[in-house]
Design a protein that fits this description.
327 residues, alpha/beta, Leucine-rich repeat, LRR (right-handed beta-alpha superhelix), 8 strands, 21% helix
Length: 327
Amino acid sequence: SVSAAFREHLRRLGLQDFPCGLGSWNKSRSDARTSPRGGQLGLGADPAGQEEALPLGEESPEALMELLTDQHSPWALPPDCSPQDQPLREMAVLTPELVCGSNVFQVFRSLRIVGKGVEEVDEGLLQLQQLEELILSANQISRITSANLPRALKVLELCCNAVADLQDLCAQPPPELQHLGLGYNQLCGPSQDKYLTADFWPNLVSLDLSFNSFTDLLGLVSQLSSLQKLRVLVLQGNPLALIPTYRGLLVDSLPKLSILDDIHIGPDERHQFHGLARQPELIRSEARVVVSIGEIKGVPDPSAHQQLEVGSEAPVITYSYCVMYEF
């Protein structure tokens, strides 16, 4: 579950262990914070004064921070952690009480759990009430229940999973979500098209549906047109992207779109395709595929015709080839 992966993530960060957290290495400073007369000590005190007054066996905040930031330190951040993790560990040095116990759940704004074999997005994620960005790429998630997602979420990335149905995700979707990443999943149209509207995602700015199995271009466009705030759309890798008028129809049908398949839409392109959306008869349900074969080895060359004399009774050898493409 996501909760189990999150707990393992916290363990790797070591927020309660040296040089972070509370312990003998900073006991006097932690006592000063909790004592009635120590409210002004700690971060607001003069660093030089702290350095001189350090009891035996304790470390200054500067020394502890250096242990975190030096890449050669045994306490340096693991290379596959997210950008937020380093500031979080620094907070655990400077103000350890903020990440102590359940307080740590209120600190997280971004959570990145990639390639950890996660199968379930469980309700334990609701403890992260301030979470705005959730990256769960390259896991094994086939179903995601929106009731288990923090309401403050603005970015949800589910690339490279096994999501085939959006019904549970759209039951109670986070109202402020701005980016939804569903690339490299198992979504098929037209049954899933109806979940890609402003009724579920009123604030969506960016949508990634790349490398799924959407085939109904006109049906999908009619649903996406309700997303008035949509500016970035990725549909490459779907069968519908092979339709010759694919890009032109999208550019003309979604006038507020700025980027399609990672390519900026300029005024010239918009002018070129102006009016195409009002000509659905041009949208044929067929694909155009160009296949180029660079070189074939080990077979006779069929272009070398045999030169036979007129009336010759020599046998004629013919060759035939079958080339198959699987889509």
